[in-house]
Design brief:
Layout lengths: L8 E4 L7 E2 L1 E7 L12 E7 L1 E3 L10 E3 L1 E2 L1 H8 L7 H15 L3 E4 L18
Antiparallel strand pairs: 1-8, 2-7, 3-4, 5-6
Amino acid sequence: MAGGHKIPHFIRYPDDQLMGFAGLYSWWREREHRGKDDREGWHLTSTIVTSDAVQTLADIHDRNPVILPQDMWLHWIDPTVVGDQALVDDAVATGVAEASTLEAYEVAKLPFGADGPELTEPVG
């Protein structure tokens, strides 16, 4: 952010490969519906895991999403893997290294609802 104003940026791998983020989700039930045999009161919550910003992206924001390399995707989403702090720590350490390889550049602010390749064209 420059001077407190949000500036849009396009962030990508230099070779345009897909980017995968470490995320977590949880289904939970409202207290008043617990113990009932119905489909009411269920909620899905999710989040993207973040870490401190890497040097190359620190001017954009103080946090970065944890980016997983493709060789970690299947392990991260494997329902048989028990998630623990070691899994998260490994993802964050790997994600910092991945984020350091990204390139970012400023793009133009476009009207709400704009869509198309012009969204990724560099400013200036």
